[in-house]
Amino acid sequence: MALIHRAQLRPSKLELVEPWLRMQSWFAGDPSAPLTAVAAYRFDDPAGEVGIETLLVRAGDGPVLQVPLTYRDAPLEGGDAWLIGTMEHSVLGRRWTYDATGDPTYIAALATTIHRGGTQADEFVDVDGDLVFRESTATVAGSGTTDASTPALSSTTALSTRDEPGSTVVEAGSLRLVVLRVPGSPTAETSVLAARTPTGGVPEHLSGTWADQPRSRILALAIAL
């Protein structure tokens, strides 16, 4: 369950992310157009300490870009390379916001969702002490099964990232995750094809749909090393 507070954010998520996003090698879209939100989905942190949210955004008429974020109440040790910035949350206080591909909590949540056939977290908004269900604007699902094993990942697992055309590749322990930054693009499809298993199949993956994308798109891949 993802608990969401009705709060003011300064700067807003898009205001915080936009300058960083335009500097990424995989950015696509009109560089002069404002960033707009398309959809979003969340994962649970079992410890209840880290907010995990993936934004789907676009610049002008450009393609949809996938931007996973984590929100923390203190800096992530060793996470400076992935820090996007801080914002003030009127309920929770200062929040350190990271490119989630460098955050072990997100990597563990994504791997678990993929391997065990999980979905996005149910979202509940705190309205004067009552929890009100809110429909997620994107629906995602892992391709695995509930009884599947998940590679052991922890906060001490060595983690590295590298950007490739249209994707970010994360290596953590015995697992490689490919986060498709431009889902559905030719470069994303190339990433999927390049990651085929020895038998020619697609590795375990996360796929999703949203309002203007009713056809399911692969969003991330999980590959055992």
UniProtKB/TrEMBL annotation:
<feature type="domain" description="Maltokinase N-terminal cap">
    <location>
        <begin position="20"/>
        <end position="103"/>
    </location>
</feature>
<protein>
    <recommendedName>
        <fullName>Maltokinase N-terminal cap domain-containing protein</fullName>
    </recommendedName>
</protein>
<keyword id="KW-0547">Nucleotide-binding</keyword>
<dbReference type="InterPro" id="IPR040999">
    <property type="entry name" value="Mak_N_cap"/>
</dbReference>
<dbReference type="Pfam" id="PF18085">
    <property type="entry name" value="Mak_N_cap"/>
</dbReference>
<keyword id="KW-0418">Kinase</keyword>
<keyword id="KW-0808">Transferase</keyword>
<keyword id="KW-0067">ATP-binding</keyword>
<feature type="compositionally biased region" description="Low complexity">
    <location>
        <begin position="145"/>
        <end position="160"/>
    </location>
</feature>
<feature type="region of interest" description="Disordered">
    <location>
        <begin position="141"/>
        <end position="165"/>
    </location>
</feature>
